[in-house]
Design brief:
The protein has 251 residues and is α/β, with parallel strands linked by helices. 24% of the residues lie in helices and 20% in strands. It has 5 helices and 12 strands.
């Protein structure tokens, strides 16, 4: 599948035609873990029609960690959609990690989309850079320009993927935050490393029903883009209305 090709999959819808979407991020599966996520994924499969994972799926980006998560994912009886996070890149084995998760049936999105039950799920990892007027600009040393170029590249990946969505409803899946509203609660000094407004600028150009992301473990649960699109931080450890590790939405 190319970087902008959209796949499709069926899933049951509620009587009102909506899809139940469970979302959680920052699983941080490690090779030395003492538990697993099988019971959680089984529970989610009873409560939702789709499971969305918002990155940092592994702790150090090692293939063995991805294999352990892949074993757990087989307990999910609903489609699984997600993106990678910064932790998944740590060991420079992202291709192996990606292949393992895709082999377990996960729709791993990286500038791609998948349609499930009439909803288009679009995903990129995103990147850092800051928010609003304090967003880092491409000026000065080559290292700064390269940093900003990565942020712009992720935003363009998202834009290209959004242009290929044919469904009437859309969910954007990110790791990094697109708005400062969902990082509130984190130390202000690290805001620029938690996301970028460039992502929100792209999102607000399209019809998007829901945005979910992770990464900001001590951030805030909900906010909106400048254009009013709802954004939810579903990082594990953040309190959610369900009282569970995951958030649940109807789209």
């Amino acid at each position: 599948m190319s970087e902008t090709t959209a796949a499709s999959e069926t899933a049951p819808a509620l009587a009102n035609g909506k899809l139940r979407v469970a979302a959680i991020g920052d699983l941080h599966v490690g090779a030395d873990r003492t538990g697993d996520y099988r019971a959680l994924f089984t529970d989610i499969s009873r409560e939702a029609d789709v499971l969305v994972l918002t990155g940092d799926l592994t702790n150090l980006g090692k293939p063995r960690e991805a294999e352990l998560l892949a074993e757990d994912l087989r307990a999910a009886s609903v489609p699984v959609v997600g993106v990678l996070g910064n932790h998944d890149y740590e060991s420079d084995e992202v291709e192996a990690v990606s292949a393992i998760l895709k082999g377990a049936g996960m729709h791993l999105l990286n500038g791609t989309s998948v349609e499930i039950g009439g909803v288009g799920f679009v995903g990129v990892k995103g990147f850092t850079g800051g928010f609003g007027r304090r967003m880092l600009g491409s000026f000065g040393e080559p290292a700064v320009k390269a940093f900003v170029a990565e942020s712009v590249s992720e935003a363009l990946l998202l834009e290209n993927a959004m242009r290929n969505v044919k469904a009437g409803r859309a969910v954007v899946v990110l790791h990094y935050a697109p708005t400062v509203g969902t990082v509130l609660g984190e130390p202000e000094e690290i805001y620029p490393f938690l996301g970028s407004s460039r992502l929100a600028e792209i999102i607000d150009r399209f019809k998007v029903d829901l945005v979910v992301h992770g990464h900001a473990h001590r951030g805030s649960y909900s906010a909106t883009t400048p254009g009013g699109i709802p954004v939810f931080n579903v990082a594990q450890g953040l309190e959610k209305p369900t009282g569970q590790p995951y958030a649940l939405f109807e789209v």
